[in-house]
Structure formats: C-alpha cells, structure tokens
Amino acid sequence: MRVRSKGWLLGLGLLCSGQAMAACSVAASVPASFGSISSMTVRTAAQASSTTSAGLTCTSALISLLVPSDHFYATITSASTGMVGPTGDVIGYTIYGTNTASFPIARNTQFDFGGTGGIAQLIGLIAGPGAKTVPLYMGTITGSNVAAGLYSETLNIAWSWNYCSGVGLGGICLGRDIGNGTATLTVSMTVTNDCQITAPNILFGSAPVVSGFTAVTGQTINIACTKGSAYTVGLSDGQNPVSVGGRRRMVSGTNYLAYDIFKSAGTTRWGSVGAARRASSTAEVNPGNGLGIGSQVYNYNARVYTDQPTPPAGVYVDNVVLDVGF
C-alpha cells in the first residue's frame, strides 16, 4: 500500500512541475505587400495581401484552455486612411482577422482576438508546440484612380493581453499572463503604368485600281492611361514595310499594296520611332497626361498610295502594332 501511494504522489508531482506556462510578447512584425499591380487592376479588382506576424508572439502551454475572460486586444491606428503614394493619392483597404475576409478590424477601435471560439483559439495562439504569431489579412477597396508609384502606410498596433497562461489538474489556472506593447506594421503596394486601348481596324474597301481607294478619315484611337502619366504612342511599320522609304504594305500572296497611316488629318506619317510617335500632349481630345478614368482621343487618316502600279485582284492584309511608351 505504501509503495502504490508513493508512486501516485510522485506522478502528480511530475505533472505539476512539468507544466509549461504560456507567455506573450511584442516583437517585430512582418511587412505586408500587395506586390506590383497595374493602375487599371487596382481600380477595378480587389487585391489581397497578408502578414504572418502583426507583432504579437506567444509561446505555448502544454495544457491551455482559453475561456471567455481571456483577451488579446489589438488597436490599430495610423496617420493616414490607407496607402499613400508619391502624389498624395490614397489606396484604401480593409484589415481582417482571418483569410476569409471575415472579422473586419476597424481602425481606432479595440479588437478582441478573443478566448473561447475567438480567432486566438482558431490559430492556436497558446496551444500546441512552438511559438505562435498573430497574422493579419488585407483586401483593397476598388475604385481608386491613382498615379503610378510606391504606396505605403505604417500601422501602429497597440497590443494588450490578459489570459490564463497555464492550466493544472481540474482546470485550475496556474497563473495569468498580463501585458501590453506596440508594434508597427508596414503595408505597401507598387502601382505600375497601364493603358486601355481601343483601335478599330482600317478598311479601305474595294476598288479596281489604286486610284479608286478612298482615304479612311474620321476614325480615332482611344487610349486611357494611368492618372498623371506622360506617354507616347507609336504605330509599327507593319509586317511588310518597304526597306527604302518605309512605306507600309498590305500583302496578298506574293503581291503588295502600299498604304500609310498619318497623324490627325495631315500628311505626317505616324510611326514608332522618335518624332514619328505621338505624345499624349498632342491628343485631339483631353491632351496632356493620362487621366486614369476617361480616354484621350487621337485622330488619324489612312490612304493607299496612288503612285504604284495596281496589283492583281485579291484580299490584301497587314497587321500594325500600336505601342504606348512611358
């Protein structure tokens, strides 16, 4: 009897002395980056990002049970209302406690990651082996018409916690971990220049001789580029240019029909190099830098050269590449 009783007491002593106590602290956060996104995508589609650590780190207990009275509070503040870019434009975003866009976290308001059934329980903040950190998730708000550049915001996250840091036999709390601290978290995105282009096909129709083709006039190229961007527009020489003189040519089999595209309503050839390009400042509608929302309109005319022999009948085709350079 004395031997069995001594063994039971020894086992209880080992269980109590081996109990680890959880402990939390504030450490450096891991920056969150949305990466490099085009201005058009930023405006039209929500983007997602996250950080694996928002600054709160907790070691685990061998036995841990969070209860309703346990709390892990975070209060997020900032000097701005979103990521700010080089021209003062702002990209707004929402902060979430989980990666399912649930548990939105409002700025300047204490948010409880919670005890029983809360986010702290879901991520096993003080359960299981190893140290655990608290992640945060972000989703941008669509509709931001912004210039290109680096956008960033520094969040201040004030953490405070009060929870049972170790549980003994019978669910007895062996002690509470109470503390606080502040972490900073950088959230960033690089916005790149982009354009949306509307360029209709050029159709010369049919004619029995080269002098019978009517010039194409009244057509336009519409370009919507990133807000504040200065750019140029070029038209390639097509797939079959004349090596000397640079005329564009349509092809049908082994036969060619020379033509060209000219700036506005004039006779200056619209090309792809140097002064042959068109600057955004020369648009007929909304000249200047890009608007982001709203197009700049470029007039042009196209003609078949009449100083060439009439080629054999056929369907003549060429492909011209329009490029925008920033």
UniProtKB/TrEMBL annotation:
<feature type="domain" description="Spore coat protein U/FanG">
    <location>
        <begin position="182"/>
        <end position="321"/>
    </location>
</feature>
<keyword id="KW-0732">Signal</keyword>
<keyword id="KW-0449">Lipoprotein</keyword>
<dbReference type="InterPro" id="IPR053167">
    <property type="entry name" value="Spore_coat_component"/>
</dbReference>
<feature type="signal peptide">
    <location>
        <begin position="1"/>
        <end position="22"/>
    </location>
</feature>
<dbReference type="Pfam" id="PF05229">
    <property type="entry name" value="SCPU"/>
</dbReference>
<feature type="domain" description="Spore coat protein U/FanG">
    <location>
        <begin position="19"/>
        <end position="157"/>
    </location>
</feature>
<dbReference type="InterPro" id="IPR007893">
    <property type="entry name" value="Spore_coat_U/FanG"/>
</dbReference>
<keyword id="KW-0167">Capsid protein</keyword>
<protein>
    <submittedName>
        <fullName>Lipoprotein</fullName>
    </submittedName>
</protein>
<keyword id="KW-0946">Virion</keyword>
